[in-house]
Amino acid sequence: MALTLLRGIRTQALPRANAGLFCTTRLSPLARFTTRVEGVQTTSPKAAPTSIQQAAKEAAEQKMQGFEAVIGIETHVQLSTLTKAFCSCPYDYGSQPNSTVCPTCMGHPGTLPVLNAKVVECAVKVALALNCEVSMTSKFDRKQYFYPDLPKGYQISQFDIPIAEKGYIDLDLPVEFGGGHRRFGVTRVHIEEDAGKLLHSESGNYSQVDLNRAGVPLLEIVSEPDMRTGIEAAEYGAEVQRLVRYLGVGNGNMQEGSLRCDVNVSVRPIGQSEFGTKVEIKNMNSFNEISRAIDYEISRQIHLHKESQADQIVQETRLWNEASQKTFTMRKKEGLADYRYFPEPDLAEVVLTSEYVDEIRNSLPELPEAKRRRYENMGLSMQDVIFLANDDNVAHFFDSTLEHGADAKLAANWIMGDMTAYLKDEKLSIHESKLTPLELSEMIASIKNGTISGKIAKEILVELIAKGGTVKSVIEEKDLIQIADPAAIVAMVDKVLADNPKQLEQYRAGKTKLQGYFAGQVMKASKGKASPVLLNKILGEKLKGS
Amino acid sequence: MPPPLQAHRMLLSHRRISPAPRRRFTAVSSLSSAPAKTAVAPGPPPSSILSIRDSLLSGERTAADITSEYLSRLRRTEPSVRSFIHVADAAAERDAEELDRRIASGGKDAVGPLAGVLVGVKDNLCTVDMPSTGGSRILDGFQPAYDATAVRRLRDAGAIVVGKTNLDEFGMGSTTEGSAYQVTKNPWDDSRVPGGSSGGSASAVSARQCVVSLGSDTGGSVRQPASFCGVVGLKPTYGRVSRFGLMAYASSLDVVGCFGSSVFDTATMLSVIAGHDKMDSTSSSHDVPDYRSDLVSLNLLESKPLNNLRIGIVQETLGEGVDTGVISSIKAAASHLEQLGSVVEEVSLPSFSLGLPAYYILASSEASSNLSRYDGIRYGKQVSADELNELYGDSRASGLGHEVKMRILMGTYALSAGYYDAYYKRAQQVRTLVKKSFEEALKRYDVLISPAAPSAAYKIGEKTNDPLAMYAGDIMTVNVNLAGLPALVVPCGFVEGGSAGLPVGLQMIGSPFSEGNLLRVGHIFEQTLQDVSFVPPMLADL
């Protein structure tokens, strides 16, 4: 607990100006672009087994060598509004190049941005979910640089007055990584527009510009440098993704670039208050890769420290290479880029009323952290809590099952056990299952009231997930009602005992564990429908009595 | 009807004119019955829009007749004036014939408020059916995918776009010499500039090549050429007219404005183009009145029509560096206004002289950003190169002109890290001061008056090598843009120069959204100004 508390304290030692904000860590256009292309080209193989655990262990060992890492993350979240941030074009990932563009998002002469109100709504939702202070008055600025994917020669962003600041994220680390509750600070959240994409010809002789993505709304979420390990950073990113999905403001898909994380990593000897030289890592396509990339980078930097080559750690952008499991220098930073920010004269200030913010606050769904605490209070184990709360579809299914009266622990077991196993085999996600929460609760009730056995329930469950229908209809259709009539069971037991005189003799000679054999035979004869409780009772009596 | 006012006679003393009755150009309808060559006593300018409308409604003339009359004048004057970068004469004729067909079949409902009115459009306003270059080589041949909102509204009201008028590249300049295509000449004297940057729009109306025209005003680009060319020019309140489709120069200052040969025409045009536009979030939802409704014809005016009007004459605009002829014209105009019943007092705007440097910092800063899109990547001129930075550099180096490059450099510098506070931020603070000092003055006065420029039109080439002298010429107008206020320029007199004197414009500045009042005062001023006519002498020979 002490550890948890300590972790929960936000790092305040860092003056904000150095906190890895705008200029110092923004990418130059070239960097951005290259990253994206690499991102597209890199196939993402399945995570090397046990590498996370391995990396976590390594990171822990490295800490023991007297160093600690300091990690901050900039997350870009694409908002899935119907139209772009400043024009009325739609955006659909993967559509024909330059098919969802208009003069405004192509930066034609004379065009002007008009703010999509939905973007502000999404931003406020996310800001509140991140426990931020929402700016009642914020404004837009222009960030200027030349690149072919940036039609206007500037990106509309927010510089000195972002829509929200000073928030935090609470999360629970996975049990397999030692668990523990963490609170990571969020420095700021601001609204900006995405750029287009460049497609380079194979010959390298020309490049093509696809502006479909230009003008798509983004939220940039900047964390405090509060994380210390790869897994913490990965979990931070995963929690941002969860929030985005819970709130329904974006799909958070990393493969499509709807959620992008750029990570800043530095190491320092434990006890030192200044940060070491930070290195930016990009090109991670999953949280797993984030975790591994960071842990690799930490060990690389610590190694340089130990070899007295700390001067070789320089401010640079490094790319994660999934194939070699290493980071490589992409580009050294040559001084600070000057984006010549100035207030966007084409857009009015964004002025929010407290009624507006309150309305959004009241409309927020229950968020992952609240859910986890609620599940925890139901007496579920942390493993169960994390499993159920961290996927909004699963959580929704679980909550809905409870609403129909199911017992929490039983529902959790069914969902996490048979249901998940089946879905995993069939490569389905829970919302594709035809089993409704109502029927799951019915099934659990049917077990409880003795209509069916747990074994039969497993069969029914698979049937329901695959084909749907009601518990009742499946039971009737397949004649699966549990035999709870003592006379019928007595008859079956008598028959089994009579048919197996040899085993009965052995039993009587002291081989009492043969009771299980008899029970199995009766169950087989009943096609699994005999009430296990009654069967064991009657069988026990018969064996004892006779 | 007010008594004949004599004040203006003073103005006439600056003109070298023969005592013979001067020739005068009048409205289209009167042209047909009374050719321009006929000597007509100088008098208040009639509304060309009204007479076109009357002709069409009465069936006296067809739109095709009117169009061909303007086009023939355009063809004769254009070789010397060169107002237009692009003339869409065939399209205008087609549009006119189409209008005539609609009138014939649909009757009077087909006659919109601007039906058959030939409009010139400054070439930094997008037109879907004509090239729009902004006066820049970098957009040579560029044809937009859409009409600017102001253009579309004019067309919806029945106007016929006759062509795209010349300008200083992207509106950056005060002479129209900064066009990459041609030099436009002042119709009053072809050795002189028409002013700028909307010089082509001003000269086109002055030479009656079109009825009215659209311009844009970032630091005086409508008002100064209106003054130089002797036409009415209106710079509306910031946000009164949508900027959508106007190639941005300095977004926080840019306004689409209009030119006409009479206040009535200008008011009619504003009524059509003003109002909120969902494509421009800086456009205002403030009500749009019918700006013509307060314009009372001369014979219905009371003897003191400007009773109760408080006018402040801006002290700082009549001092050093201002042409004495201009000063006496403005003073004469002031006493004219007094005789119409208003109270005219001197007022001081202490921050006035700060406006010019602040304007050039802010406008250049915004320009450096707004012009980034002209990079040769998606449209316009592209110079092929082996490497990306070279492509940008070469395309912009060859596509953009000298003045534009200078302002981009100045603006880039002003916004750079380490300089932002000293330049951009400080200029914004000055802008606040300027705004406040206008607010103070406009609490005490309904209208502020000043010259529209420190001099009348100067010689072509006179200031091309002295940008600071050219910038200094904007002193009268830039403060109004910084404050976002509306201002109307009405020709008020002449100074010596050319064959018949050079026109001088009176600038009237009002509170935000007081265009109605400015037009009313301007209209009364214009209608009561006697014995002067602002028709350039070149038209008398046509």
UniProtKB/TrEMBL annotation, chain A:
Its EC number is 6.3.5.-. Signal peptide: none annotated. It catalyses: L-aspartyl-tRNA(Asn) + L-glutamine + ATP + H2O = L-asparaginyl-tRNA(Asn) + L-glutamate + ADP + phosphate + 2 H(+); L-glutamyl-tRNA(Gln) + L-glutamine + ATP + H2O = L-glutaminyl-tRNA(Gln) + L-glutamate + ADP + phosphate + H(+). GO terms for biological process: glutaminyl-tRNAGln biosynthesis via transamidation; mitochondrial translation. Allows the formation of correctly charged Gln-tRNA(Gln) through the transamidation of misacylated Glu-tRNA(Gln) in chloroplasts and mitochondria. The reaction takes place in the presence of glutamine and ATP through an activated gamma-phospho-Glu-tRNA(Gln). GO terms for molecular function: ATP binding; glutaminyl-tRNA synthase (glutamine-hydrolyzing) activity. Keywords: ATP-binding, Chloroplast, Ligase, Mitochondrion, Nucleotide-binding, Plastid, Protein biosynthesis. SMART domains: GatB_Yqey. The lineage of its organism: Eukaryota, Viridiplantae, Streptophyta, Embryophyta, Tracheophyta. It is found in: Mitochondrion; Plastid, Chloroplast. Belongs to the GatB/GatE family. GatB subfamily. Subunit of the heterotrimeric GatCAB amidotransferase (AdT) complex, composed of A, B and C subunits. Residues 396-543 form the Asn/Gln amidotransferase domain. It comes from Lolium multiflorum (Italian ryegrass). GO terms for cellular component: chloroplast; glutamyl-tRNA(Gln) amidotransferase complex; mitochondrion. Its main location: mitochondrion. PROSITE patterns: GATB. This is Glutamyl-tRNA(Gln) amidotransferase subunit B, chloroplastic/mitochondrial. InterPro entries: Asn/Gln-tRNA_amidoTrfase_suB/E (IPR017959), Asn/Gln-tRNA_Trfase_suB/E_cat (IPR006075), Asn/Gln_amidotransferase (IPR018027), Asn/Gln_tRNA_amidoTrase-B-like (IPR003789), GatB (IPR004413), GatB_C_1 (IPR042114), GatB_Yqey_C_2 (IPR023168), Gln-tRNA_amidoTrfase_suB_CS (IPR017958).
Automatic annotation (TrEMBL), chain B:
Its EC number is 6.3.5.7. Gene3D superfamilies: Amidase signature (AS) domain (3.90.1300.10). It is an enzyme of class 6 (ligase). InterPro entries: Amidase, Amidase_CS, Amidase_dom, AS_sf, GatA. Its main location: mitochondrion. The keyword Cell membrane does not apply. It catalyses: L-glutamyl-tRNA(Gln) + L-glutamine + ATP + H2O = L-glutaminyl-tRNA(Gln) + L-glutamate + ADP + phosphate + H(+). It comes from the Eukaryota. GO terms for cellular component: chloroplast stroma; glutamyl-tRNA(Gln) amidotransferase complex; mitochondrion. Coiled coil: none annotated. It is found in: Mitochondrion; Plastid, Chloroplast stroma. Subunit of the heterotrimeric GatCAB amidotransferase (AdT) complex, composed of A, B and C subunits. This protein may be expected to contain an N-terminal transit peptide but none has been predicted. HAMAP family: GatA. Belongs to the amidase family. GatA subfamily. Allows the formation of correctly charged Gln-tRNA(Gln) through the transamidation of misacylated Glu-tRNA(Gln) in chloroplasts and mitochondria. The reaction takes place in the presence of glutamine and ATP through an activated gamma-phospho-Glu-tRNA(Gln). This is Glutamyl-tRNA(Gln) amidotransferase subunit A, chloroplastic/mitochondrial. It comes from Lolium multiflorum (Italian ryegrass).
